Amino acid sequence: MRYFIKLAYNGTLYHGWQHQPNAASVQETMNKAFSTILNSQINIMGAGRTDTGVHAKEMYAHFDFDTPFDITSLIHKLNSFLPKDIVVYAIFPVADEAHTRFDATKRTYEYHINTFKDAFLQEQSWYFYQKLDLDLMNEAAKSLLNHTDFQCFSKVNTDVNTFDCSIFEAYWIKENNKLIFTISANRFLRNMVRSIVGTLINIGLHKITLNDFEKIIESKNRDKAGFSVPAHGLYLTKIEYDLEKIEKREEKIEDKK
């Protein structure tokens, strides 16, 4: 039987989600916890990859396990076993073919900037003190919705079949000394959000114009886009699925019992 896991983590001490040799990853840490508690080799698949230092307020992953277990008890044991920077919120059964990565319909990221130095947020937001034109940055962000090819914001030499993404929303808000950029799309390219934020900052500093921003996107050239902002300000905040589709799959599972 296949199960979805809803979890969150502080990415400060990890080299991203995906397992890597000779480096701590969230996936490896989760595999070890599940395998130890369930006394079986468990390989967890994530809904996506986050880079070194990136955080996730909401992440989904899945695993297969055929022996019945008490979900509430397993969640409690996992949260006792896992390090303090990873938490499991929920585990629930889905259809055998359900996939946390391929069945996701929408993903949302936030980028957090502190405009005044905060000693307690050094690894959870990026300190940037220069004054930014937030209205202009929001104009540029809104124009992202008019495009689909975002090769200019993608890490070079990445192995993808297409650079097309459907962006549903992109905007900045100000909360006291914090600036927060929110962006949602059906999929994201490697380093895409961080390079978009860096380019929007150049807009906010009046280093480039809105017309320049459009030309950068049309160029499909990463060298023409802005710098990539530090990873520690980036959060994966939400992953959405077709809930009705998942519920129907759960009904199928009940029918098989």
From TrEMBL:
<comment type="similarity">
    <text>Belongs to the tRNA pseudouridine synthase TruA family.</text>
</comment>
<dbReference type="GO" id="GO:0003723">
    <property type="term" value="F:RNA binding"/>
</dbReference>
<dbReference type="InterPro" id="IPR001406">
    <property type="entry name" value="PsdUridine_synth_TruA"/>
</dbReference>
<dbReference type="InterPro" id="IPR020103">
    <property type="entry name" value="PsdUridine_synth_cat_dom_sf"/>
</dbReference>
<dbReference type="InterPro" id="IPR020094">
    <property type="entry name" value="TruA/RsuA/RluB/E/F_N"/>
</dbReference>
<dbReference type="GO" id="GO:0031119">
    <property type="term" value="P:tRNA pseudouridine synthesis"/>
</dbReference>
<feature type="active site" description="Nucleophile">
    <location>
        <position position="51"/>
    </location>
</feature>
<protein>
    <recommendedName>
        <fullName>tRNA pseudouridine synthase A</fullName>
        <ecNumber>5.4.99.12</ecNumber>
    </recommendedName>
</protein>
<feature type="domain" description="Pseudouridine synthase I TruA alpha/beta">
    <location>
        <begin position="140"/>
        <end position="242"/>
    </location>
</feature>
<dbReference type="InterPro" id="IPR020097">
    <property type="entry name" value="PsdUridine_synth_TruA_a/b_dom"/>
</dbReference>
<keyword id="KW-0413">Isomerase</keyword>
<dbReference type="InterPro" id="IPR020095">
    <property type="entry name" value="PsdUridine_synth_TruA_C"/>
</dbReference>
<feature type="binding site">
    <location>
        <position position="109"/>
    </location>
    <ligand>
        <name>substrate</name>
    </ligand>
</feature>
<comment type="function">
    <text>Formation of pseudouridine at positions 38, 39 and 40 in the anticodon stem and loop of transfer RNAs.</text>
</comment>
<comment type="subunit">
    <text>Homodimer.</text>
</comment>
<keyword id="KW-0819">tRNA processing</keyword>
<dbReference type="Pfam" id="PF01416">
    <property type="entry name" value="PseudoU_synth_1"/>
</dbReference>
<dbReference type="GO" id="GO:0160147">
    <property type="term" value="F:tRNA pseudouridine(38-40) synthase activity"/>
</dbReference>
